[in-house]
Amino acid sequence: METLFRDLRFAVRRLVKKPVFTTIAIVSLAIGSGANTAIFTLVKAVMVGESPAKRPQELVEVYRATAGFSHATFSYPDLEELGLDTGEVFSGVAGSRISFVQTDVDGGVEVLVAELVTGNFFPMLGIPPLVGRSLLPSDDISPGAHPVVMLGYGAWQRRFGGDPG
Amino acid sequence: MIGETISLNGSEYKIIGVVPRGWTGNLRAMTPEIYAPMMMGSLVPSDGNELDSRGDMSIFVKARLNQGVALVEAQGVLDRFAESHRRSHPEQWQADNVITLVPTVEVIMNPMVDRIIVPAAAVLIVVMLLVLTIACANLAAFCSPRRWIAGRKLPPAWHSEPRGLL
Protein backbone atom coordinates (compact mmCIF):
# COMPACT_ATOMS: atom_id res chain seq x y z
CA MET A 1 0.00 0.00 0.00
CA GLU A 2 2.83 2.34 0.90
CA THR A 3 4.41 1.71 -2.49
CA LEU A 4 1.16 2.56 -4.19
CA PHE A 5 0.89 5.91 -2.37
CA ARG A 6 4.51 6.66 -3.19
CA ASP A 7 3.85 5.88 -6.85
CA LEU A 8 0.75 8.05 -6.84
CA ARG A 9 2.61 10.96 -5.24
CA PHE A 10 5.36 10.57 -7.78
CA ALA A 11 2.83 10.41 -10.62
CA VAL A 12 1.13 13.60 -9.40
CA ARG A 13 4.47 15.41 -9.10
CA ARG A 14 5.45 14.35 -12.60
CA LEU A 15 2.11 15.45 -13.96
CA VAL A 16 2.35 18.84 -12.24
CA LYS A 17 5.85 19.31 -13.63
CA LYS A 18 4.67 18.58 -17.19
CA PRO A 19 1.45 20.59 -17.60
CA VAL A 20 1.37 20.29 -21.41
CA PHE A 21 1.70 16.50 -21.28
CA THR A 22 -0.85 16.34 -18.45
CA THR A 23 -3.37 18.47 -20.37
CA ILE A 24 -2.97 16.36 -23.52
CA ALA A 25 -3.37 13.14 -21.53
CA ILE A 26 -6.50 14.37 -19.71
CA VAL A 27 -8.07 15.76 -22.89
CA SER A 28 -7.28 12.50 -24.73
CA LEU A 29 -8.94 10.45 -21.99
CA ALA A 30 -11.95 12.79 -21.92
CA ILE A 31 -12.39 12.63 -25.70
CA GLY A 32 -11.88 8.86 -25.66
CA SER A 33 -14.47 8.35 -22.92
CA GLY A 34 -16.94 10.72 -24.59
CA ALA A 35 -16.49 9.09 -28.00
CA ASN A 36 -16.94 5.64 -26.47
CA THR A 37 -20.12 6.70 -24.73
CA ALA A 38 -21.50 8.25 -27.92
CA ILE A 39 -20.63 5.22 -30.05
CA PHE A 40 -22.08 2.78 -27.54
CA THR A 41 -25.29 4.83 -27.20
CA LEU A 42 -25.70 4.90 -30.99
CA VAL A 43 -25.02 1.20 -31.43
CA LYS A 44 -27.35 0.32 -28.55
CA ALA A 45 -30.17 2.49 -29.92
CA VAL A 46 -29.89 1.18 -33.47
CA MET A 47 -28.90 -2.43 -33.03
CA VAL A 48 -29.56 -3.67 -29.53
CA GLY A 49 -32.81 -1.90 -28.61
CA GLU A 50 -35.64 -4.34 -28.05
CA SER A 51 -38.97 -3.48 -29.70
CA PRO A 52 -41.99 -3.27 -27.39
CA ALA A 53 -44.19 -4.78 -30.13
CA LYS A 54 -46.21 -7.87 -29.17
CA ARG A 55 -45.23 -11.20 -30.80
CA PRO A 56 -42.55 -9.54 -33.00
CA GLN A 57 -41.84 -12.85 -34.76
CA GLU A 58 -45.19 -12.47 -36.58
CA LEU A 59 -44.32 -9.04 -37.99
CA VAL A 60 -42.93 -8.56 -41.48
CA GLU A 61 -41.67 -5.61 -43.49
CA VAL A 62 -43.20 -5.38 -46.97
CA TYR A 63 -41.05 -3.81 -49.68
CA ARG A 64 -41.46 -3.01 -53.34
CA ALA A 65 -38.39 -4.03 -55.31
CA THR A 66 -37.67 -1.81 -58.31
CA ALA A 67 -34.76 -1.54 -60.72
CA GLY A 68 -32.97 1.00 -58.51
CA PHE A 69 -34.10 -0.02 -55.03
CA SER A 70 -34.36 -3.53 -53.71
CA HIS A 71 -36.39 -2.45 -50.64
CA ALA A 72 -38.54 0.53 -51.61
CA THR A 73 -41.78 2.04 -50.34
CA PHE A 74 -45.41 2.09 -51.52
CA SER A 75 -48.07 4.67 -52.38
CA TYR A 76 -51.13 5.15 -50.16
CA PRO A 77 -53.53 3.54 -52.73
CA ASP A 78 -51.16 0.52 -52.86
CA LEU A 79 -51.22 0.31 -49.06
CA GLU A 80 -55.03 0.37 -48.95
CA GLU A 81 -55.22 -2.40 -51.58
CA LEU A 82 -52.62 -4.46 -49.76
CA GLY A 83 -54.84 -4.32 -46.69
CA LEU A 84 -57.90 -5.38 -48.66
CA ASP A 85 -56.33 -8.12 -50.81
CA THR A 86 -54.10 -9.96 -48.34
CA GLY A 87 -56.50 -10.87 -45.54
CA GLU A 88 -55.89 -14.59 -46.07
CA VAL A 89 -52.28 -14.26 -44.90
CA PHE A 90 -52.12 -11.02 -42.89
CA SER A 91 -54.20 -10.10 -39.85
CA GLY A 92 -53.23 -6.47 -40.38
CA VAL A 93 -51.34 -4.19 -42.78
CA ALA A 94 -50.20 -0.79 -41.54
CA GLY A 95 -48.22 2.07 -43.02
CA SER A 96 -46.10 5.00 -41.88
CA ARG A 97 -44.22 7.86 -43.44
CA ILE A 98 -41.62 10.26 -42.08
CA SER A 99 -42.03 14.01 -42.26
CA PHE A 100 -40.48 17.12 -40.72
CA VAL A 101 -42.79 19.61 -39.05
CA GLN A 102 -42.33 23.04 -37.50
CA THR A 103 -43.44 23.90 -33.99
CA ASP A 104 -43.35 27.15 -32.04
CA VAL A 105 -40.97 27.21 -29.08
CA ASP A 106 -40.47 30.35 -26.95
CA GLY A 107 -41.15 32.69 -29.84
CA GLY A 108 -38.91 30.71 -32.19
CA VAL A 109 -39.43 27.79 -34.50
CA GLU A 110 -38.16 24.24 -33.99
CA VAL A 111 -38.16 21.43 -36.54
CA LEU A 112 -39.36 18.05 -35.26
CA VAL A 113 -39.30 14.59 -36.81
CA ALA A 114 -42.87 13.36 -37.21
CA GLU A 115 -44.18 9.96 -38.23
CA LEU A 116 -47.58 9.80 -39.86
CA VAL A 117 -49.15 6.42 -39.24
CA THR A 118 -52.31 4.64 -40.27
CA GLY A 119 -54.94 4.31 -37.55
CA ASN A 120 -54.26 0.60 -37.11
CA PHE A 121 -50.47 1.07 -36.76
CA PHE A 122 -50.13 0.94 -32.97
CA PRO A 123 -53.00 -1.55 -32.39
CA MET A 124 -51.54 -3.91 -35.02
CA LEU A 125 -48.05 -3.76 -33.51
CA GLY A 126 -49.54 -4.22 -30.05
CA ILE A 127 -47.73 -1.22 -28.63
CA PRO A 128 -49.66 0.23 -25.68
CA PRO A 129 -49.39 3.95 -24.83
CA LEU A 130 -47.22 4.92 -21.89
CA VAL A 131 -49.62 7.75 -21.03
CA GLY A 132 -53.08 8.59 -22.41
CA ARG A 133 -54.30 6.62 -25.39
CA SER A 134 -52.98 5.40 -28.73
CA LEU A 135 -53.91 6.62 -32.19
CA LEU A 136 -56.80 4.45 -33.35
CA PRO A 137 -58.52 3.67 -36.66
CA SER A 138 -61.20 6.19 -35.65
CA ASP A 139 -58.50 8.90 -35.69
CA ASP A 140 -57.66 8.22 -39.31
CA ILE A 141 -60.84 8.32 -41.38
CA SER A 142 -61.18 11.63 -43.22
CA PRO A 143 -58.37 13.75 -44.70
CA GLY A 144 -57.56 16.73 -42.48
CA ALA A 145 -60.25 15.91 -39.90
CA HIS A 146 -58.21 14.45 -37.02
CA PRO A 147 -55.86 17.02 -35.42
CA VAL A 148 -54.54 14.69 -32.71
CA VAL A 149 -51.00 13.51 -31.98
CA MET A 150 -49.05 11.23 -29.69
CA LEU A 151 -45.71 12.41 -28.37
CA GLY A 152 -42.51 10.43 -28.57
CA TYR A 153 -40.94 9.62 -25.20
CA GLY A 154 -38.10 12.11 -25.77
CA ALA A 155 -40.44 14.97 -26.70
CA TRP A 156 -42.59 14.21 -23.64
CA GLN A 157 -39.55 14.41 -21.35
CA ARG A 158 -38.08 17.48 -23.02
CA ARG A 159 -41.22 19.59 -23.48
CA PHE A 160 -43.35 18.45 -20.55
CA GLY A 161 -40.76 17.13 -18.08
CA GLY A 162 -42.40 13.70 -18.14
CA ASP A 163 -45.66 15.06 -16.68
CA PRO A 164 -48.10 12.11 -16.67
CA GLY A 165 -51.20 14.33 -16.25
CA MET B 1 -50.40 17.50 -20.49
CA ILE B 2 -52.94 15.15 -22.10
CA GLY B 3 -55.53 17.32 -23.82
CA GLU B 4 -53.13 20.25 -24.27
CA THR B 5 -52.40 21.44 -27.79
CA ILE B 6 -49.18 21.74 -29.75
CA SER B 7 -48.71 23.91 -32.81
CA LEU B 8 -47.47 22.00 -35.87
CA ASN B 9 -46.99 23.73 -39.20
CA GLY B 10 -49.24 26.56 -37.96
CA SER B 11 -52.19 24.36 -36.86
CA GLU B 12 -53.13 23.22 -33.37
CA TYR B 13 -53.03 19.49 -32.56
CA LYS B 14 -54.41 17.91 -29.40
CA ILE B 15 -52.03 15.65 -27.47
CA ILE B 16 -53.75 12.34 -26.71
CA GLY B 17 -50.91 10.13 -25.49
CA VAL B 18 -47.21 9.22 -25.26
CA VAL B 19 -45.54 6.24 -26.91
CA PRO B 20 -43.51 3.92 -24.64
CA ARG B 21 -39.82 4.62 -24.13
CA GLY B 22 -38.68 1.55 -26.06
CA TRP B 23 -40.46 2.52 -29.28
CA THR B 24 -38.09 4.58 -31.42
CA GLY B 25 -40.17 4.70 -34.58
CA ASN B 26 -40.23 2.71 -37.77
CA LEU B 27 -36.72 3.79 -38.76
CA ARG B 28 -34.91 3.30 -35.47
CA ALA B 29 -32.14 5.81 -36.13
CA MET B 30 -34.61 8.64 -36.82
CA THR B 31 -36.69 8.73 -33.65
CA PRO B 32 -39.92 10.70 -34.16
CA GLU B 33 -41.06 13.22 -31.57
CA ILE B 34 -44.59 13.39 -32.98
CA TYR B 35 -46.93 10.65 -34.21
CA ALA B 36 -49.94 11.84 -36.20
CA PRO B 37 -52.68 10.16 -38.25
CA MET B 38 -51.81 9.48 -41.89
CA MET B 39 -54.89 11.52 -42.86
CA MET B 40 -53.29 14.74 -41.59
CA GLY B 41 -51.64 15.57 -44.89
CA SER B 42 -50.92 19.16 -43.85
CA LEU B 43 -47.94 17.74 -41.93
CA VAL B 44 -46.41 16.48 -45.18
CA PRO B 45 -44.74 18.77 -47.71
CA SER B 46 -46.68 17.81 -50.84
CA ASP B 47 -49.12 19.03 -53.44
CA GLY B 48 -52.01 17.82 -51.30
CA ASN B 49 -52.96 14.64 -53.15
CA GLU B 50 -50.48 12.23 -51.51
CA LEU B 51 -53.38 10.00 -50.41
CA ASP B 52 -54.67 9.57 -53.97
CA SER B 53 -51.47 9.56 -55.99
CA ARG B 54 -49.90 6.26 -57.00
CA GLY B 55 -46.76 8.18 -57.89
CA ASP B 56 -46.17 9.31 -54.29
CA MET B 57 -44.22 6.30 -53.09
CA SER B 58 -43.23 7.22 -49.55
CA ILE B 59 -45.04 4.78 -47.28
CA PHE B 60 -43.27 2.09 -45.29
CA VAL B 61 -45.47 -0.98 -44.87
CA LYS B 62 -45.58 -3.47 -42.01
CA ALA B 63 -47.87 -6.46 -41.71
CA ARG B 64 -48.70 -9.11 -39.15
CA LEU B 65 -48.89 -12.70 -40.36
CA ASN B 66 -51.99 -14.67 -39.49
CA GLN B 67 -51.22 -17.37 -36.94
CA GLY B 68 -49.75 -20.44 -38.66
CA VAL B 69 -49.06 -18.68 -41.97
CA ALA B 70 -45.53 -19.18 -43.30
CA LEU B 71 -43.50 -16.45 -44.98
CA VAL B 72 -43.50 -18.42 -48.26
CA GLU B 73 -47.29 -18.59 -48.28
CA ALA B 74 -47.58 -14.83 -47.73
CA GLN B 75 -44.98 -14.24 -50.45
CA GLY B 76 -47.16 -16.20 -52.90
CA VAL B 77 -50.14 -13.93 -52.20
CA LEU B 78 -47.95 -10.83 -52.64
CA ASP B 79 -46.56 -12.17 -55.92
CA ARG B 80 -50.13 -12.35 -57.25
CA PHE B 81 -50.81 -8.84 -55.91
CA ALA B 82 -47.72 -7.47 -57.70
CA GLU B 83 -48.63 -9.22 -60.93
CA SER B 84 -52.12 -7.73 -60.82
CA HIS B 85 -50.67 -4.24 -60.21
CA ARG B 86 -48.12 -4.57 -63.00
CA ARG B 87 -51.08 -5.17 -65.35
CA SER B 88 -53.45 -2.53 -63.96
CA HIS B 89 -50.93 0.24 -63.17
CA PRO B 90 -48.06 -0.21 -65.63
CA GLU B 91 -46.84 3.39 -65.20
CA GLN B 92 -46.05 2.95 -61.50
CA TRP B 93 -45.50 -0.81 -61.49
CA GLN B 94 -42.89 -1.57 -64.11
CA ALA B 95 -42.36 -5.08 -65.45
CA ASP B 96 -39.47 -5.80 -63.05
CA ASN B 97 -41.27 -4.58 -59.90
CA VAL B 98 -41.90 -7.27 -57.30
CA ILE B 99 -42.77 -7.37 -53.61
CA THR B 100 -40.40 -8.78 -51.02
CA LEU B 101 -41.05 -9.73 -47.41
CA VAL B 102 -38.48 -9.54 -44.62
CA PRO B 103 -39.18 -10.51 -41.00
CA THR B 104 -39.18 -7.33 -38.89
CA VAL B 105 -36.84 -8.89 -36.32
CA GLU B 106 -34.16 -9.12 -39.04
CA VAL B 107 -34.39 -5.44 -40.02
CA ILE B 108 -32.64 -2.58 -38.26
CA MET B 109 -33.56 0.33 -40.54
CA ASN B 110 -33.96 -0.99 -44.08
CA PRO B 111 -32.16 -4.02 -45.55
CA MET B 112 -30.40 -1.74 -48.07
CA VAL B 113 -29.13 0.57 -45.32
CA ASP B 114 -28.41 -2.28 -42.91
CA ARG B 115 -25.81 -3.64 -45.33
CA ILE B 116 -23.83 -0.45 -44.66
CA ILE B 117 -24.56 0.28 -41.00
CA VAL B 118 -23.85 -3.21 -39.63
CA PRO B 119 -20.19 -3.26 -40.83
CA ALA B 120 -19.87 0.43 -39.85
CA ALA B 121 -21.12 -0.37 -36.34
CA ALA B 122 -18.64 -3.26 -36.12
CA VAL B 123 -15.79 -0.89 -37.05
CA LEU B 124 -17.00 1.63 -34.45
CA ILE B 125 -17.04 -1.06 -31.78
CA VAL B 126 -13.46 -2.07 -32.66
CA VAL B 127 -12.42 1.61 -32.48
CA MET B 128 -14.19 1.88 -29.12
CA LEU B 129 -12.31 -1.15 -27.77
CA LEU B 130 -8.99 0.25 -29.03
CA VAL B 131 -9.62 3.59 -27.35
CA LEU B 132 -10.55 1.80 -24.13
CA THR B 133 -7.38 -0.27 -24.31
CA ILE B 134 -5.26 2.85 -24.82
CA ALA B 135 -7.04 4.58 -21.94
CA CYS B 136 -6.41 1.58 -19.67
CA ALA B 137 -2.74 1.46 -20.69
CA ASN B 138 -2.41 5.20 -19.93
CA LEU B 139 -4.03 4.74 -16.55
CA ALA B 140 -1.78 1.81 -15.73
CA ALA B 141 1.27 3.88 -16.68
CA PHE B 142 0.11 6.75 -14.47
CA CYS B 143 -0.42 4.44 -11.52
CA SER B 144 2.96 2.74 -11.56
CA PRO B 145 5.54 5.13 -12.97
CA ARG B 146 8.44 4.13 -10.72
CA ARG B 147 8.26 0.46 -11.57
CA TRP B 148 7.93 1.32 -15.24
CA ILE B 149 10.89 3.68 -15.16
CA ALA B 150 12.98 1.22 -13.17
CA GLY B 151 12.35 -1.49 -15.74
CA ARG B 152 13.63 0.72 -18.51
CA LYS B 153 17.24 0.81 -17.22
CA LEU B 154 17.50 4.54 -17.58
CA PRO B 155 20.68 6.50 -16.79
CA PRO B 156 21.45 7.05 -13.10
CA ALA B 157 20.68 10.76 -13.42
CA TRP B 158 17.09 9.95 -14.41
CA HIS B 159 16.70 7.48 -11.53
CA SER B 160 17.97 10.01 -9.04
CA GLU B 161 15.27 12.56 -9.89
CA PRO B 162 12.28 10.70 -8.45
CA ARG B 163 14.17 9.84 -5.28
CA GLY B 164 15.01 13.52 -4.87
CA LEU B 165 11.42 14.48 -5.36
CA LEU B 166 10.09 11.94 -2.89
Strand content of chain B: 15-25%
Gap between N and C termini of chain A: 56 Å
Find the biggest chain interface: A-B, 118 and 109 residues
Q: In angstroms, what separates the terminal alpha carbons of chain B?
A: 63 Å
Rg from Cα of chain B? 30 Å
Count up the helices of chain A. Answer: 5
By DSSP, the count of extended strands of chain A is 5
Strand order of the largest sheet of chain A: 2-3
Residues in helices of chain A, as a percent range: 40-55%
Element order, helices and strands of chain A?
HHEHEEHEEH
Give the biggest sheet of chain B: 2 strands, antiparallel
Strand order within the widest beta sheet of chain B: 1-2
Q: Name the helix and strand elements of chain B from N-terminus to C-terminus, one letter apiece.
A: EEEEHEHHH
- Poorly predicted runs of chain A are none
Note poorly predicted spans of chain B: none
Q: Would you tell me the overall average pLDDT of chain A?
A: 88
- Quick check: average pLDDT of chain B? 83
Shape of chain A: elongated
Quick one: how many beta strands of chain B? 5
Verbal overview:
The complex is a heterodimer of chains A (165) and B (166). Chain A is elongated, with a radius of gyration of 26 Å. Helix content of chain A is 42%, strand content 24%. Chain A has helices at 2-17, 19-48, 76-85, 121-125, 153-160; strands spanning 59-65, 90-105, 108-117, 131-132, 148-151. Chain A is of the alpha+beta class and 165 residues long. In chain A, strands 2-3 form a two-stranded antiparallel ribbon. A two-stranded antiparallel ribbon of chain B has the order 1-2. Chain B contains four helices and five strands, in the order ββββαβααα. Chain B has 166 residues and is α+β, with helices and mostly antiparallel strands. Chain B starts with a strand and ends with a helix. Chain B has helices at residues 71-88, 111-143, 145-151, 156-165; strands at residues 5-8, 11-18, 34-37, 60-65, 98-103.
